[in-house]
Design brief:
318 residues; alpha+beta; Structural Genomics Hypothetical 15.5 Kd Protein In mrcA-pckA Intergenic Region, Chain A; Pseudouridine synthase; 3 domains; four-stranded antiparallel sheet; 21% helix; globular
C-alpha cells in the first residue's frame, strides 16, 4: 500500500508519520514493521524509525503474511531471581536464545516464559512476549521481562534514558589500555555479512561502554574487565572490544582466538581451546520499579564454565 506524505507531516520521524497515516496502528507495531524491512520510501527500504520524511515522499508499506507457526509453550526451567505482578528478573543460561527466529521456535526464553507466566506484555509482538531487551544466545546473566504493557513501556523508557543500569563481566585477550575508560563509536550492520555488526565511521547508532580492569592473568595474556552499558546496541561489548584487538575470550563471531597459549599449562590450554562461547556475563542490573517507584538492584555470580577459567588463572597467578 502506498502513501503520499502530506505537507503537515514534513520533517516528521518515519514512525510518527506512519502512525498518523495508517488507521488503528500503534507506534510499537510500526517500529517493528520498519525494523523488519516492510517500509520503503521512494522505492528504498528504510529501517530507521527516526528517519525524517519529506513532503510528497512515496511511502510503501509491504504487509507481510503472518507466520504460519504459532508460539509454542515450552516447559523449560528458568532461574528466576525475582518476580512480582509487573516483572520478572531472570538469570539466563548461556546457549538459550531469547526469542524465536532462524528456525528455533520452541526452545527460547520466550517459549519458556509463556509456560511460566499467565500474563506477559505484547508490545514487542507475538514472538517476543514480555521481552524488553535482549542478551545474545551465548551470553549469560540477568535479563528483565515485563508482565504487562505499562511495565514494558516504563522499563523500555528507562533503558532509553539510561536509568536502567546493566553491568557485565568479561574475560578478554590482552591488557586493555588505559585500564579504565570509555569506548564510544557508532555501530551498524556489516555490509559484507548482514548477520554481523561492525564499527562505522558514518551512520549506524552511537554506542557507549564504560569499562574497568579487575584482573590481569598469564603475564597479560588474559584480563578480567567489567563493562557498564550506556547504550544497548546489538553485540555492543563484543564488537567494541574486538575492534580494539581485545576480543572476548571464546567469541566465535568477533573473536581473535589464535593466541600464544603454548606457554600455559596443558590444563589451561585445554580449557581455553574448548571454550566455544563468549566469556561474557550480565552480572548486575538496577532500575526503578514501574509501579512502586522503588529502586531495585540485582546481581548474580558468573556461571560455572567462566568461573572455572578464572579459578585456573588465579591459581597460576598465585
Amino acid at each position: 500500500m502506498d502513501y503520499i506524505l502530506p505537507k503537515e507531516l514534513h520533517a516528521s520521524r518515519l514512525d510518527k508519520a506512519l502512525v498518523e497515516l495508517i488507521e488503528k496502528s500503534s507506534r510499537s507495531q510500526i517500529q517493528i514493521a520498519i525494523k523488519d524491512g516492510q517500509i520503503q520510501i521512494n522505492k528504498v527500504i528504510i529501517s530507521d524509525s527516526s528517519y525524517k520524511v519529506k513532503e510528497n515522499d512515496v511511502i510503501t508499506f509491504t504487509f507481510k503474511e503472518p507466520a504460519l507457526q504459532t508460539m509454542q509453550v515450552s516447559n523449560i526451567k528458568l532461574d528466576v531471581i525475582y518476580e512480582d505482578e509487573d516483572l520478572i528478573v531472570i538469570n539466563k543460561a548461556a546457549g538459550m536464545t531469547v526469542h524465536p527466529g532462524a528456525g528455533n521456535h520452541q526452545d527460547t526464553l520466550a517459549n519458556a516464559l509463556l509456560y511460566h507466566a499467565n500474563n506477559l506484555s505484547n508490545i514487542g509482538g507475538m514472538e517476543r512476549p514480555g521481552i524488553v531487551h535482549r542478551l545474545d544466545k551465548d551470553t549469560s546473566g540477568l535479563i528483565i521481562v515485563a508482565k504487562n504493557n505499562f511495565a514494558h513501556a516504563n522499563l523500555a523508557h528507562q533503558i532509553e534514558t539510561r536509568q536502567l543500569v546493566r553491568k557485565y563481566k568479561a574475560l578478554i585477550w590482552g591488557i586493555i589500555n588505559p585500564p579504565e575508560g570509555l569506548i564510544k563509536n557508532n555501530i551498524g550492520r556489516s555490509n559484507s555479512d548482514r548477520k554481523k555488526m561492525t564499527i562505522l565511521k558514518t551512520g549506524g547508532k552511537e554506542a557507549i561502554t564504560y569499562y574497568k580492569t579487575e584482573g590481569i592473568f598469564l603475564n597479560g595474556l588474559i584480563s578480567l574487565i567489567e563493562c557498564k552499558l550506556e547504550t544497548g546496541r546489538t553485540h555492543q561489548i563484543r564488537v567494541q572490544l574486538s575492534q580494539l584487538k581485545h576480543s572476548v575470550v571464546g567469541d566465535q563471531t568477533y573473536g581473535h582466538n589464535n593466541r600464544k597459549i603454548n606457554n600455559c599449562s596443558v590444563e589451561i590450554q585445554e580449557k581455553l581451546l574448548s571454550f566455544k562461547r563468549q566469556a561474557l556475563h550480565s552480572w548486575y542490573m538496577s532500575f526503578i520499579h514501574p509501579q512502586t517507584g522503588e529502586f531495585m538492584e540485582f546481581n548474580t555470580h558468573m556461571p560455572v564454565d567462566i568461573q572455572e577459567i578464572v579459578t585456573l588463572l588465579c591459581e597460576v597467578k598465585k
